[in-house]
Amino acid sequence: MIVICGVIYPLAMTGVSQLVFPDQANASLTKNKEGKVIGSELIGQDFKGKQFFHGRISSIENNAAASGSNNYAPSNKDLIKRVEKSIVALKKENGNVETKDIPVDLLTNSGSGLDPHISVEAAKFQVPRVSKEAGISIEKLDELIKDTTEKRSLGVFGEPRVNVLLLNLKVQELQKK
């Protein structure tokens, strides 16, 4: 059983995945024009500049060496403080918007702490700031969001979502022009 479950089965699954899903089996790595690996479409990354879209909060600072998140109840005082701090920061950065208009995924962690996606609403929420800071029209940013929006899984599961890495790479490309 050790040989079957510990050696043969993992090798067989690795071989099948390399043949059927080579990109996913190799971590969905994203490369720049020079061929240098700059990230994975599967791992969230921090984008600090105001000219970029920001992803979800990560309690592990998007460190893919280990995943996890604080499993706080909504009544937890540390969670409440962090959310209040995030609300203040988002209002300051995005033009003192109403708290009710801030998409919840910009205030909450994902279960793994590594989620590379935000909702379409969270991306659109950031458009005025990114437009101003990056010098890209709102219409062009809306088009980029549409281009990087991933559909529901299998057409029925989850919500449409935007991969922040892919979106920011497009923003960066436009800034170079």
Keywords, please?
mainly alpha, 177 residues, 2 domains, three-stranded antiparallel beta sheet, two-stranded antiparallel sheet, 45% helix, 8% strand, single chain
> What is the mean predicted local confidence, pLDDT?
89
Query: Termini separation (Å)?
Result: 59 Å
Tally the helices: what do you get?
A: 6
Oligomer designation: single chain
Envelope shape? globular
Topology as a string of helices (H) and strands (E): HHEEHEHHEEH
Q: What portion of residues belong to β-strands?
A: 5-15%
Which value, in Å, is the CA radius of gyration?
19 Å
Number of domains: 2
* Main beta sheet strand tally, sense and closure: 3 strands, antiparallel
The number of E-state strands comes to 5
Identify low-pLDDT runs. none
Structural class: mainly alpha
Give, in spatial order, the strands making up the sheet with the most strands: 3-5-4
- Share of residues in helices: 40-55%
Protein name: Potassium-transporting ATPase KdpC subunit
GO cellular component, one term: plasma membrane
Organism: Fictibacillus macauensis ZFHKF-1
Subcellular location: Cell membrane
